[in-house]
């Protein structure tokens, strides 16, 4: 690496960083906002002191205080991302010449690709990822790929044997035609391949795909597919007792750079398939365990100083990425301290408005830029180039592993297929190898959290490593985002559990992190560790203002009070700044909105459930695993996703709190509007804050109205709602209907309201079923009241015209069927019908 730098001496800098223009204004705003937050907390304390009169008002004040304390804490942690964001640029051009001219100078790279389940992660996808990387513009003799298969699946090995044969054609094809999309799937999808060479390659690819998919579908490799002695030996490992959870190590060198050549006689990179040993009796630590096996196996085979880790779906989108990375790794000023260079996770195929908020721009782009100006971004699991040394202690505290061959400084001098190398590789891939070693605790990828990426990045930064965020205009990698709501929620639930595991360990960023990295980095990591506690304020704000509103209790300042302005400032300040960050980061308003909506949905579902599951695990009641996110695209589902249809898809307890909140908000919204319409200015002033919150949470309502009832025709869920409506909300519903009827029956609101409520077929069904009795009850009461009122008016001789009196008391139309106010006939008809119905029951 040093040789490389010397040879670039004198040319322009390999990389530059510039601080964001928003940094200064962010700091000023932070000061102002912090004062506002403190003032609000003071106001809360005051209210709390005043609300000792009744237990319920005390509880309400307390819950609001807790919610705002948590929001204030989260706000504080986000400030780390805003104090010093930087944007980096690299100049790979100044390096390009050197790299091609002096092959010997460039460092070797080991690439790790993890896969765990051939059904959720189709082998063809993994193969595409591997091919895109094998075809990097980099000397192939310096590249080695290791595929970790935690699924222990013969079809996956088969797919890679096929891929190796195809690569012999694909790599020279990419070189010759200067192909940019080096994942064949992406290339063939976006190029029409008119020239005959491309046609030929495409046919070859398609036929490989058919063979692989066929084998995957059958779940085993038929004899007709096994060609050579070597292949047959490899597949013999899959004996009858071989299961995914219990099997010996399988290591297969598929391509060996010392002898394998492509069709033009060029060297091909090493390609090694590794399925580590599994047994029912030992813990495997999921992906972290798989990566540690690869670190050891690769150390024995090549021991390249740079390691690229990729999830099976993260294919390369730019063949020149390695040159970019070398801009940092070859700079001796930073090289010795750089632990890793993280690229953002970007996803292909996200729909226009990103309805499930999968882009997660803040996590993958905005926040890392913020951390990059401090000590460097957190690790996000894929698209990351590691300095191998980072896995063995701090920059100035080398921790030597138990075998000299695993040391990052060990020089490999045996061919990868030599018996000694293979024997040792099998040994270090064994499931008991790590017992009584430092692996996972002080060495390698760290265990103890389901978000091993976050935890490992955090720990190595605590040890003193600096990290770098590299975000080129042309994304270096693309991955697959989950495109169904339940997948998103399950993924986020796993993250929530993993993050809490860190938050409540001795490595809590608030203590451990701050003491080792200073307050800003510590808070940045704390922001993630405590991510799931967002569910607490979200739940409080989704229910407390609503229930108090339904009970006619005012909990927020009146419009005329100065505190109201404070609330407005805090609300719009936070959301405004958030939107600004998002737009500056290249987002659109619609995507921001979708992101907000998902924030609410996440907070009320997976963060809540994640926290519960985490607590159960801590109490030893249950355990949790790594539920791999599906990367399979169902055609129908993709189509609907493409069209932007928000769907729940399946039934899941995850949706219950969400929909409960949606219904409560709907009821509260109607109730508030009615109260304000009736009560006039006073109520408006008093209830506006609550109304705003309810309307805002109506984002959820929007979702539930559109899709929930149509989609989730699931019995269990339906029961839950019925129950809920019946027990919790009967009174409320009665109130609402009563108000609605009394207030608005003269106009055509009844129709409108009932249309609104009964619009969706199934929704109507559900509501009608649930509230039929309540509805009838209410109607009876209303009629009684109306009659009573009418009676009174007639008694006091206040009435000259009976018809007018009926109107004044809120009963519909003229006797002759026409409308007094000239309403359209349809309206009248409808109303007649509803009147008839009620009359029958009366
Ligand atoms: O026992 C396991 C489980 C998973 N994986 C691999 O881990 C990767 C990530 O799994 P995925 O289901 O895609 O999880 P995501 O939530 O989408 O991934 C994010 O979050 C994970 C931590 O929860 C990180 O490991 C990932 O890098 C990061 O992209 C995939 O390649 C899997 O094959 C394994 O190798 N072994
Ligand atoms: Mn993933």
TrEMBL record:
UDP-alpha-D-glucose binds at residues 120-121, 150. Mn(2+) binds at residues 287, 311. One of its GO terms (cellular component) is membrane. This is Cellulose synthase-like protein G3. GO terms for biological process: cell wall organization; cellulose biosynthetic process. The active site is at residues 150, 453. Pfam families: Cellulose_synt (PF03552). The chain crosses the membrane at residues 28-45, 57-75, 525-544, 564-587, 654-677. InterPro entries: Cellulose_synth, Nucleotide-diphossugar_trans. It comes from Morus notabilis. Residues 815-842 are annotated as: Disordered. Keywords: Cell wall biogenesis/degradation, Glycosyltransferase, Membrane, Transferase, Transmembrane, Transmembrane helix. One of its GO terms (molecular function) is cellulose synthase (UDP-forming) activity. It is a multi-pass membrane protein. It is found in: Endomembrane system. It comes from the Eukaryota.
């Amino acid at each position: 690496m040093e040789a490389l730098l010397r040879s670039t001496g004198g040319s322009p800098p390999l990389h530059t960083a510039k601080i964001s223009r928003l940094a200064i204004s962010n700091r000023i705003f932070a000061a102002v906002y912090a004062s506002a937050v403190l003032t609000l907390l003071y106001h809360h304390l005051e209210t709390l002191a005043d609300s000792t009169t009744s237990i319920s008002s005390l509880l309400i004040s307390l819950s609001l205080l807790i919610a705002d304390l948590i929001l204030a804490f989260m706000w504080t942690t986000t400030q780390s991302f805003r104090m010093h964001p930087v944007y980096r640029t690299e100049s790979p051009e100044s390096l390009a010449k050197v790299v091609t001219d002096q092959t010997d100078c460039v460092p070797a790279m080991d690439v790790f690709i993890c896969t765990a389940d051939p059904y959720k992660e189709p082998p063809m996808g993994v193969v595409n990822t591997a091919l895109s990387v094998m075809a990097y513009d980099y000397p192939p003799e310096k590249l080695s790929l290791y595929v970790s298969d935690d699924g222990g699946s013969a079809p996956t090995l088969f797919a890679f044997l096929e891929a190796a044969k195809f690569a012999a054609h694909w790599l020279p094809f990419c070189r010759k035609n200067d192909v940019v999309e080096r994942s064949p799937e992406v290339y063939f999808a976006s190029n029409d391949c008119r020239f005959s060479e491309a046609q030929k390659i495409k046919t070859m690819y398609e036929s490989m795909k058919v063979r692989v998919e066929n084998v995957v579908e059958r779940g085993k490799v038929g004899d007709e597919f096994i060609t050579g002695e070597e292949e047959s030996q490899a597949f013999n490992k899959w004996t009858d007792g071989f299961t995914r959870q219990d099997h010996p190590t399988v290591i297969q060198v598929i391509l060996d750079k010392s002898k394998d050549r492509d069709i033009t006689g060029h060297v091909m990179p090493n390609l090694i398939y590794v399925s580590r040993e599994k047994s029912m009796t030992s813990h495997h630590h999921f992906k972290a365990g798989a990566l540690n096996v690869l670190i050891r196996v690769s150390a024995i085979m090549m021991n390249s100083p740079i390691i690229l880790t990729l999830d099976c779906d993260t294919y390369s989108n730019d063949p020149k990425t390695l040159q970019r990375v070398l801009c940092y790794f070859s700079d001796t000023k930073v090289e010795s301290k750089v632990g890793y260079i993280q690229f953002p996770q970007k996803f292909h195929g996200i729909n226009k408005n990103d309805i499930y908020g999968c882009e997660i721009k803040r996590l993958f782009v905005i926040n890392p830029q913020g951390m990059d100006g401090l000590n460097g971004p957190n690790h996000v699991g894929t698209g990351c180039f590691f300095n191998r040394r980072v896995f063995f202690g701090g920059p100035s505290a080398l921790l030597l592993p138990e075998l000299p061959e695993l040391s990052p400084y060990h020089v490999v001098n045996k061919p990868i297929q030599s018996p000694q190398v293979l024997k040792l590789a099998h040994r270090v891939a064994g499931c008991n190898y790590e017992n009584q070693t430092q692996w996972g605790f002080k060495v390698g990828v760290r265990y103890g959290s389901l978000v091993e990426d976050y935890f490992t990045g955090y720990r190595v930064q605590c040890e003193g490593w600096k990290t770098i965020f590299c975000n080129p205009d042309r994304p270096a990698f693309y991955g697959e985002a989950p495109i169904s709501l339940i997948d998103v929620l399950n993924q986020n639930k796993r993250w929530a559990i993993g993050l809490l595991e860190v938050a409540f360990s001795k490595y809590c960023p608030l203590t451990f992190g701050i003491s080792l990295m200073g307050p800003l980095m510590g808070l940045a990591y704390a922001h993630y560790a405590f991510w799931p506690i967002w569910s607490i304020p979200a739940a409080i704000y989704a229910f407390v203002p609503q229930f108090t509103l339904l009970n006619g209790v005012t909990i927020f300042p009146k419009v005329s009070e100065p505190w109201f302005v404070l609330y407005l400032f805090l609300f719009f300040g936070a959301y405004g700044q958030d939107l600004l960050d998002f737009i500056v980061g290249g987002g659109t308003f619609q995507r921001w909105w979708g992101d907000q909506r998902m924030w609410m949905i996440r907070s009320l579902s997976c963060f809540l459930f994640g926290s519960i599951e985490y607590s159960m695990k801590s109490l030893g009641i249950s355990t949790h695993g790594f539920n791999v996110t599906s990367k399979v695209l169902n055609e129908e589902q993709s189509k609907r996703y493409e069209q932007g249809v928000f769907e729940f898809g399946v039934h899941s307890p995850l949706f219950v709190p969400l929909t409960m909140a949606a219904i409560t908000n709907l009821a509260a919204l109607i109730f508030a509007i009615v109260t304000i319409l009736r009560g006039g200015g006073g109520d408006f002033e008093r209830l506006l804050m609550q109304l705003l919150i309810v309307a805002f949470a109506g984002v959820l309502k929007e979702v539930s109205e559109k899709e929930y009832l149509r989609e989730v025709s699931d019995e269990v869920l339906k029961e839950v709602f019925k129950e809920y409506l019946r027990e919790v909300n009967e009174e409320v519903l009665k109130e609402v209907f009563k108000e609605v009827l009394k207030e608005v029956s003269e106009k055509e609101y009844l129709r409108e309201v009932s249309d609104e409520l009964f619009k969706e077929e199934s929704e109507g069904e559900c509501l009608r079923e649930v509230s039929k009795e309540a509805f009838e009850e209410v109607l009876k009461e209303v009629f009684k009241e109306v009659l009573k009122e009418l009676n009174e008016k007639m008694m006091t001789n206040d009435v000259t015209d009976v018809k007018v009196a009926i109107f004044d008391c809120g009963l519909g139309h003229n006797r002759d069927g026409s409308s007094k106010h000239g309403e359209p006939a349809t309206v009248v008809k409808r109303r007649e019908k509803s009147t008839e119905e009620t009359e029958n029951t009366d």
